[in-house]
Amino acid sequence: MVEGKAGWRGSSSTRAGKQPENVWPPYPPPDESELERAVRLEEEREAKLVSDAIDRALEAERQTLRRERKLETKLLLLGQSESGKSTMLKNFQIQFAPNAIRAESDAWRAVIHLNLVRSVNFLLDILTRPPSNNHPGDSSPTTSSFSNRVSATPQPNSDLRRFKLTLSPLRQVERILAKYLSAHDVPSADDSRAASPTGSYLATAADVTIRGGHSWRALCQPRREGDDEGHSRHSDGRVDPVENARQILDACRADVVLMWTSAPMQAALRDEGVSRDDVCAFFLDDADRIMQKDYEPTFDDILRARLQTDGVEEHHLTMETGMFTRAENGQHWIFYDVGGARGQRASWVPFFEDVNAIIFLCSTAGFNEVLAEDPTVNRLLDSFTTWKTICSSKLLVSVQFILILNKMDLLDARLKEGIQFSHYVKSYKDENDVEHVTEYLKRKFSAIHRHHSPEPRKLHMHSTCAIDMDTTSAVLLRIRDTLLVTYLAAMELI
Description:
This protein is an alpha/beta fold. The protein contains 21 helices and eight strands. The strands form two sheets. Strands 4-5-1-6-7-8 form a six-stranded mixed β-sheet, sandwiched between helices. A two-stranded parallel sheet has the order 2-3. Strand 6, helix 17 and strand 7 form a beta-alpha-beta unit. The longest helix is centred in the first third of the chain and has 38 residues. The N terminus is likely disordered.
């Protein structure tokens, strides 16, 4: 055996005096003395000890990463735009990490103020605009937009004109807050009409939209001692304008309340067909409180704040101690909130391989609406198609599936108004009430999940209204129980 090993080492390159590369232990040099051999073997032994220590450290690091991944629960929020994904995420934060979201109140105050100001400016633009030349037949009966409706107020009411003058400082407030949050700029109604090939106005008061990955919450955090970033943020004048904006809001508070509650405004809204959903009516109803200089957002305010994200937002949530069982205290959840528009759905797939659960939200009120990006596609039918695609993915075989039927309050209201569900969903043949329609939707989504899943798996289904904290709290506790079982199984505790 020794001769064979020596023969293997004694290749032609060795005989020619060349040492092979990447061989361990290295070949002994020719004419090696006993002392040189002893030194070489000791060096090889020490090198082997170092190499083994490095291997042990790498393996320990791999084991640590595996344990940390077991401690993390990763959830992917999926669904169309405006299905309620961000609102559901805020519910999770309020329910399981209230102190963390309370620390973000300054940031949420800026978002809420921008929501309210954009609604006021939008209303003043729409209701004091010149007469429209559009015709009633130009609008689609299935869209919630009122942009093509005939103006029933050809000459703006004198009170509304006065409000537009006294509330003009809110234009500057909107620019200040949009810049502070790095939100997308929104043109005025007149500017949007001039830029539109159809000459139509904005359909609704624009939501606050930010770039995915943009840490807008950190912008409003108090400056800490020695925080260079915070120092530059204060010194470049970005905070003072926001304080000025709050003073302007407080000064305009009485006029906003008077405008919103005035008979001419309410009459004009009815004539124009503007619904409460088209503007942030909740904030306008409570403008006297929200526009005060010392205003602090409540959890209910934060839930109703409208904020859209372009791209993917990653949110970390740590279960706060003293609230739940010992197994849950300190448990770390990571949420991926992705854009729901058709053009953004390709960004979902990279997250499929590394999540513990999918939470898919369907807006049940979308049965008589169409996609903003494609007005030929019904929103509810698009949810069916998207759900089928997700259920069919082989990457999600071992992932928990949670379906939330959201906006049940709007579904109930529309059905009670007499809007026929069967007119938009041809396969529906039952009564036009929320109980029968909800049962139909549950059967439909369950059937799609059962028929298109690569392997049999359980579907956890819930129905709620995401802005109703009491109803949603019960849903979240059931979802928590589902995820806790998954977590304990991953830790090999059950």
